[in-house]
Amino acid sequence: MEVNFWNKEVETADRADLEKIQLEKLRETVSWAIRSPFYKRKLSRLGINCAEQIKSLDDLQRIPLATKDDLRQNFPRGLMAVEPQEIVRMHSSSGTTGIPTVIYLTQDDINNWTELVSRCIVATGAGREDIFQNMMGYGLFTGGLGLHYGAERVGMMVIPIGGGNTKKQIQMMKDFQTTVVHATPSYLLHIHSVLAESGVSVKDLAIKKAYVGAEPHSENIRLKIEELYGIDAYNSYGLSEMNGPGVAFECVYKASMHIWEDAYIVEIIDPQTGERLEDGQQGELVLTNLIRRAMPLMRYRTRDLAFLIPDKCQCGRTHRRLSRIMGRTDDMLIINGVNVFPSQIEEVVMKIPEVGTNYLIQVEKSGALDKLTVKVEIYSKMFLGEASQLEKLRAKIKEELRASIMINPVVELHEPGFLPVSQGKAKRVVDERPKL
Amino acid sequence: MKITQISIFLENRKGRLCEVCSLLGDNGINIRALTIAETESFGVLRIVVDRSEAAVELLKSKGFVANLTDVVAVEVGDEPGGLAAVLKIFADNDVNVEYMYGFVEKFSDKALLVFRFEDTALAQKSLTGSGIKVVTEEEIKGL
Fold first, then answer.
1. Contacts of B41 in chain A (CB under 8 A)
2. What does A332-346 look like in DSSP terms, one character per residue?
3. Is A190 found in the same domain as A155?
């Protein structure tokens, strides 16, 4: 198998050199971090006031773990470590409440992120000759722009179509003979199921590779995509807190995702005790971002469950591989690639006076795609007698939810007392999708 | 001139409508006219009964989401053109009908039409002197 590298030297650096790079960058990161109010407080309390105090990679453990709550409580500028004028981009991600998390990037940060994405693309064997259709959300989401910049740098022709509008996606794949696509696995399955309606068959397309990510999926789903389209599908992992896509990606051997260890320090911890686990043991993925100056974030608890594969990959890269994500340690849902916290939904529902406090979140499959239904009970007293009033209420709830969680849920109005009331702790989420 | 209609919110669940009607029947309440406005996911049942206050209290006590709405009932001859004649009066007077439903009476050759108007006062004004018989709350009880 032909193996290509964007940056062979770094990608095949031996472990000792990699660790040297990590230590150097960790020190740099600490020196930037203490310029942010959040880390200034946290680190000075622990007696860490300058980078020189970080003498070895073991000193990383002196730095406290960071969580989404830290990001929320320090919104918007608590983690900013540079002057605002130096920031050229912000991206936003779902917060556990209505408050989103924000990340900032300087021009250098964007360049460094783009370098990683370029590595990922070349690792899959794609290059200048490819036509790339980017089906991931642009805008505040990092999925779209992240791959976009990397694809341009590699020299592919980018079709910046973003998500949705399936008829158009199919038309473009046919008209432009797209060779590489970036999408959620469920969206690719969905497109395949409607190809016939557009009078298009797989024979009319030129796709060779798919980059899939943003939602958990099994090996069977990947194989299914490969079989239906006759292509290679590569797993991608990223999160906005670590810039976005490009954190980890599969190479041509498709044997789990290489995580770029010159850009991230990876730890797997026991989610209950915080204790570090060995390679091969499943636990919570904790990441330290070594390449973002605008908003340093160290030992961030991703809430994703995974394990590390230390063995050398056939491609020759020395950066360890990350298993597929096996689950979450929190209750966050992923609906068609978009992160949704049940608490965001609860916050919206509780603010609406016409509905009671009993609600239910139902997630199920609708064909290949995920479907989210929010069921609420109306307050008897608010009913004035008109169907139009109820329709307006339903539309209002839908709109408020959409503004908060960024996707379109189905909203159902129910009579009081009709949603199941659970004993003890309320079971607010019913996820009927097949387990991985 | 106004009579009382009871509006009941019913979620789209099998047997719910039957439960309402059984409850009323078991308690000696007679439905005079009835219609259901349905949407994709729920319905609003509209009924005119002989004892509105008792009915709505009964429904609420059993956990139904019910409320009273003012509507106007008129009586017309049960023959072709009966409804059209009334509607013409409203159209000529710019009276907007939000919804309506109709029933045939059993002891006379009349039909009962129930209207919900955007502007009830205007509707009442247009009916005064029109020769159309407006049914009162008392008369509903005795139908």
1. 394, 412-413
2. -EEETTEEE-HHHHH
3. yes
